[in-house]
Specification:
Elements lengths: L1 H31 L4 H26 L4 H19 L3 H16 L7 E4 L6 E8 L3 E5 L5 E5 H6 L2 E3 L6 H10 L1
Antiparallel strand pairs: 1-2, 1-5, 2-3, 3-4
Helix pairs in contact: 1-2
């Protein structure tokens, strides 16, 4: 029993160490790409939950629970979670899109953009990039909340007068 407790302590210490390494990498990425602290916080929470889940699974294995018992519990939990969210499947797609936007979206807060949409003119300045949506302030002062999953599906044009020089350099390289 003592060896199991020592192994659990080792696993917890290893998970904390790996979490700090990944968090450090995320911080370097965020500083290099001028990503806001709010957006970084969302991704850090997702990483923390992932490490917590992995630590829980490893601890269950160390205490002698078999693969079948652990995965039956996990599949039951995920089934209940899936049923609870089935009416809101777009929440999951927006969270996934939010993580993708964190790493790959070439526009930053303060950039002036236009989302190509045949039904409405969505153009203005990005004021917030959150886990579920992007807030765009139009020239008339109104604010548009645009879901992350949809902004990844639409073409986005950078307008003149944008603050981000990184995006302008990116655009010139591609021309």
């Amino acid at each position: 029993m003592i060896t199991k407790v020592v192994l659990v302590v080792v696993v917890v210490a290893l998970m904390i160490y790996l979490n700090r390494i990944v968090t450090g990498i995320l911080l370097q990425f965020a500083n290099k790409n001028r990503i806001s602290a709010l957006r970084l916080g969302y991704v850090r929470k997702a990483v923390n939950i992932g490490f917590l889940l992995m630590g829980f699974i490893f601890t269950c294995f160390l205490f002698g629970l078999g693969y079948q018992q652990v995965f039956i519990f996990m599949s039951s939990f995920l089934a209940v979670l899936g049923i609870a969210l089935v009416a809101q499947w777009s929440i999951l797609s927006n969270i996934t899109a939010g993580v993708i936007i964190f790493f790959a979206f070439p526009y930053r807060i303060g950039d002036r953009i236009k989302v190509v949409d045949k039904d409405d003119d969505i153009s203005g300045k990005i004021v917030e990039i959150a886990l579920f949506h992007v807030l765009i302030r139009r020239d008339d002062g109104s604010t548009v909340t645009y879901p992350n999953s949809i902004i990844l599906q639409k073409a986005v044009i950078q307008l003149n007068g944008s603050k981000s020089t990184e995006v302008e350099a990116f655009s010139e390289d591609k021309c």
